[in-house]
Design a protein that fits this description.
The structure holds two protein chains of two kinds.
Chain A (H helix, E strand, L loop, with lengths): L2 E9 L3 H12 L4 E5 L15 E2 L9 H11 L6 H21 L13 E2 L9 E2 L5 H16 L2 E4 L1 E9 L2 E9 L4 E12 L20 H8 L4 E2 L4 E8 L9 H4 L3 E3 L7 H4 L9 H13 L8 E4 L5 H7 L1 H11 L8 E10 L2 E3 L11 E3 L4 E2 L12 H22 L10 H13 L7 H15 L6 H17 L14 H25 L17 H4 L1 E8 L2 E8 L13
Parallel strand pairs in A: 1-2, 1-9, 2-6, 9-16, 15-17
Antiparallel strand pairs in A: 3-5, 4-5, 7-8, 8-9, 10-15, 10-18, 11-14, 12-13, 13-14, 18-19
Chain B lengths: L1 E8 L10 E8 L6 H11 L19 E4 L2 E4 L14 E5 L6 E3 L2 E2 L2 H8 L20 H11 L6 H4 L2 H5 L5 H12 L7 H8 L13 H5 L6 H14 L6 H16 L4 H9 L7 H16 L14 H14 L1
Parallel strand pairs in B: 1-5
Antiparallel strand pairs in B: 1-2, 3-4, 3-5, 6-7
Classes of the chains: A alpha/beta, B alpha+beta.
Chain lengths: 560, 320
């Protein structure tokens, strides 16, 4: 059997993964990227509105960006990490521009900006409403130019450990159904979010929390997993994302009476308050009977046809495709929907986890720059800054390591698991049913409004599903491109992570950011200005807490 | 409503593996897309049904397939727009790429072509400290090409690729245009030279299929035509296609209509040994035309009012 070997192996090929890969390549590492889908299919392409940066060269202040991010995070973000991100943001934008991203310009030919939520300054750089896709394409171009090896459509089933260090991965090659060992002196997890744990979600079907589960299963702790973002504007029906840039360009949110209801909740920033605030406001309107068929209305009509077509063309296409609505003529029904995981694998500002040789960046990581609520257009920035940093740090680590023996027997456990799924006879239950029950449960109880009873119900349900999981059978018995097997393996990852979300939510006895408890509706800085940290043990989940790093912004009451 | 999906399936591991058609009849809500329906089949009826898909919102480019014979992105294709009177929809893998399993194809040929156009920005001169200055109109114009999600629908239905796998194809050429049209790129001349070679911009037959099937409005063929213009302006006027275009313009600009008898030698050149076989190859065509009395008159006459045509040509040239 072939054994593959690299200095640095990056798992995932979205923005964080490709940026980490390029950084490692530039630092001289033998780096490879492994991804379960072709790089340009990664879910970073769904990021629409833009990327935040304070360009200090034109007089903007990175401290102001950092302060907005800290406030947005409801003071749960680590301020040392936020300072790093906001300070390095300007260079990251210029670097992207030099690589070829076709950012929108102002009338002088310089980079143009638009406004985004939770901030009073327009510092969001953008490519129409396809910013994620436009950056993803350009990073892929750079990866092609660098001629980096890409293991395309390979699914990582577990991390390989030797003497407490991470030394590679076991992966399933989808085209052949073969399991492989890929050795590496450092592994960088950039696998993105956890969307499919929820139903519905704005996330694509490939977003299954793989990296979080891989790290969690080898003992890396997960930070603030209860912090799950509901995006204020997801489309009625299939829950597809409608960018915050719509409101950034000036769109209104209206209730059934035609009122701009944000007046009551955030008189200053109105529709551009932070996402947790807007989602809660919408859900309150809906719950109190001022919604329209379970939704509120997003009104873009006054923006005019030209702005809609040149700057918001993609959401116009989506509204037309799915609801037959022309944004210039009619408001669209939207509602809060699952969108983003603020928490993640606990790392430092170099992307290092608690396990030597294991790094993480992007949505799967908890650095933590987003704390209890992420600002719009900070996620792309997060992927680029910490993707680069983790790629560099992994390279430095790899250069200090000597080769280590990794027995090929590490393939046996995953091989046995796969065989058990393939050999079992189907008994009626299916991966799809278990996933749907998980998703609907999470969306019912671990959503915009939570309480003790609901979170307990969610945890009980997830535990029941975890018991059903090992009895599932894979009906497709083939080797070639067996997606039935792939989805079943992903489901195992998701169930582990769903449990950490419930457990962390139950642990936090306050309301902060996206974690709003109807039974404890106050933020409690005295007892709860701290991170939840959940770890895997053979006996079950273990809950710890970690202090929040505060450098210069003391917690204050949050008003928008 | 009730729908019947007729899916072309292929299991490479079956004994004597052959593609076959399978029908799935199910009840779905009226707003369902073809992708929603395929996912429902996969999750509730037959978990072995294999396809690629992810975002469900026409941005990841995973789910191009042939629906009723034409390439479409199935996530943005409503069932009601493609069902026949009996409620039936035919789904098959995209064309011009080898099928791996069911609706999954091997996209290696697609990506090899994209790689073939050196798809990365090549600025020249020292890098500025800040951003490159560029007019917003240029960036907005390129956004139209950057809408390409690399789904392969255009390549699937490209009628040239069907007979000549050397053709770079619509997606790769649109990608090439994205760089040639970028004011920051300094390698346009080299790119246009390479694109003027065999398999490049002059091999498109302008059938419009790619424009028709592109789910993102990229209009690859129009980008190819723009590349042709830029190539000729940049001095790459020796390719047969370029000579044909120039000769066409010259003749019409002179007499107001086409003179096929002059077009052929002007395109291939009277004494060009390289194209002599091409020129001789036209003789049987000429003889056949003669036999059927379709040969154009030996003495080519200008149309009445030709001076108006000439004036139009002058105006266009002055505009350039």
């Amino acid at each position: 059997m072939a054994v593959y070997e690299h200095d640095v192996l990056v798992v995932g090929a979205g923005l964080a993964g490709m940026r980490a890969t390029l950084a490692a390549h530039q630092k001289g590492a033998n780096v490879a990227m492994i991804t379960k889908v072709h790089p340009v299919r990664s879910h970073s392409n769904a990021a629409q509105g833009g990327i935040n940066a304070a360009l200090t060269s034109r007089g903007d202040s990175w401290e102001d960006h950092a302060q907005a991010t800290v406030k947005g995070s409801d003071y749960l973000g680590d301020q040392d990490a936020i300072e790093v991100m906001c300070q390095e943001a300007g260079d990251a934008i210029i670097e992207l521009e030099h690589m070829g991203v076709i950012f929108n310009r102002d009338e002088t030919g310089h980079l143009g900006t638009r406004r985004f939520g939770g901030q009073e300054v327009a510092r969001t750089f953008f490519v129409a409403d396809i910013t994620g896709a436009a950056i993803l394409q350009v990073l892929y171009e750079q990866v092609l130019k660098a001629q980096v090896r890409v293991y395309e459509e390979w699914f990582v089933t577990s991390l390989v450990m030797a003497d407490g260090e991470c030394r590679g991965v076991v992966a399933l090659e989808l085209m052949t159904g073969q399991l492989h060992l890929i050795k590496a002196k450092a592994v960088v997890l950039c696998t993105g979010g956890t969307g499919r744990i929820y139903e519905p979600t704005t996330n694509g079907l490939v977003v299954t929390g793989d990296g979080l589960a891989l790290a969690y299963r080898v003992g890396a702790p997960l930070l603030d997993m209860e912090m799950v973002q509901y995006h204020p504007t997801t489309l009625k029906g299939n829950g597809v994302l409608i960018t915050e840039a719509a409101r950034g360009e000036g769109a209104y949110l209206l209730n059934a009476k035609g009122e701009r209801f944000m007046e009551k909740y955030a008189p200053k920033l109105m529709e551009l308050a932070s996402r947790d605030v807007v989602s809660r406001a919408e859900q309150t309107e809906i719950n109190e009977g001022r919604g329209v068929d379970g939704c509120v209305l997003l009104d873009l009509r006054h923006l005019g046809k030209e702005v809609i077509e040149t700057k918001l063309g993609y959401i116009n296409e989506v509204a037309m495709d799915f609801l037959g609505i022309n944004l210039a003529e009619e408001p669209i029904p939207v509602r809060p929907g699952h969108h983003y995981q603020m928490g993640g694998i606990k790392t430092n500002v170099l992307g290092a986890t608690s396990i030597p040789g294991l790094y993480a960046a992007g949505e799967c990581a908890g650095v933590s720059v987003h704390g209890a609520n992420r600002l719009g257009a900070n996620s792309l920035l997060d992927t680029l800054i910490f993707g680069r940093r983790s790629g560099e740090a992994a390279t430095a680590h790899a250069k200090e390591q000597s080769p280590k023996e990794v027995p090929e027997s590490v393939l046996e456990a995953d091989g046995a698991l796969i065989r058990s799924f393939l050999e079992r006879k189907p008994k009626g239950d299916s991966w799809a049913r278990v996933r749907l029950e998980m998703g609907e449960t999470m969306n019912q109880y671990m959503a915009v409004f939570r309480n003790e009873e609901g979170m307990k119900a969610a945890l009980n349900k997830v535990c029941e599903l975890k018991e059903r999981y090992p009895r599932l059978a894979v009906q497709d018995k083939g080797q070639v491109f067996n997606t039935n097997l792939l989805f079943t393996l992903e489901l195992g990852f998701m169930l582990d992570i769903a449990e950490t979300i419930c457990v962390s939510g139950l642990a936090r006895k306050e309301s902060r950011g996206a974690h709003y408890r109807g039974d404890i509706p106050r933020r409690d800085d005295v007892n709860w200005l701290k991170h939840t940290v959940v770890s895997w043990t053979p006996e079950g989940t273990q809950m710890d807490f970690a202090p929040v790093t505060i450098t210069r912004w003391q917690p204050q009451e949050r008003r928008y | 409503m009730q729908v019947t999906l007729q899916v072309r399936r292929f299991n490479p591991e079956a004994p004597r593996a052959q593609p076959y058609e399978q029908e799935f009849t199910l009840d779905v809500p009226g707003y369902f897309t073809v992708l929603d329906t395929l996912i429902k089949v996969r999750e509730e009826m037959d978990p072995t049904l294999t396809l690629r898909c992810s975002c469900r919102a026409s941005i990841c480019g995973s789910c191009a397939m042939r629906v009723n014979g034409h390439a479409k992105l199935v996530c943005k294709t409503k069932l009601t727009s493609v069902m026949d009177a009996q409620g039936k929809v035919r789904v098959a893998p995209v064309g011009n790429m080898p099928v791996v399993k069911d609706l999954v194809v091997d996209m290696k040929p697609f990506w090899d072509k994209v790689r073939g156009v050196d798809p990365w920005l090549q600025p020249q001169g020292p890098e500025p400290k800040d951003e490159y200055l560029a007019p917003n109109e240029a960036m907005v114009h390129l956004t139209g090409v950057m809408m390409c999600i690399m789904c392969g629908a255009c390549v699937s239905d490209c009628t040239v690729l069907e007979v000549d796998s050397n053709f770079l194809g619509p997606a790769a050429l649109a990608k090439a245009y994205r760089f040639v049209g970028d004011p920051r790129d300094g390698a346009a001349k080299g790119r246009l030279g390479k694109l003027s070679e065999y398999g490049g911009i002059w091999d498109c037959t302008r059938c419009y299929e790619c424009v028709q099937v592109c789910p993102k409005g990229v209009a690859p063929m129009e980008r190819i035509m723009a590349l042709r213009d830029k190539a000729i302006v940049a001095g790459f006027d020796k390719a047969i296609g370029a000579r044909h275009t120039i000769a066409f313009g010259e003749i019409v600009g002179h007499s107001g209509r086409l003179d096929e008898l002059r077009l052929v030698p002007k395109t291939f050149g009277m004494f060009n040994p390289l194209h002599l076989p091409n020129l001789l190859g036209m003789i049987p065509v000429g003889l056949r035309a003669l036999r059927r009395r379709k040969l154009p008159p030996i003495r080519h006459k200008s149309i009445p009012g030709v001076e108006n045509v000439r004036r139009i040509f002058k105006k266009v040239e002055a505009g350039q």
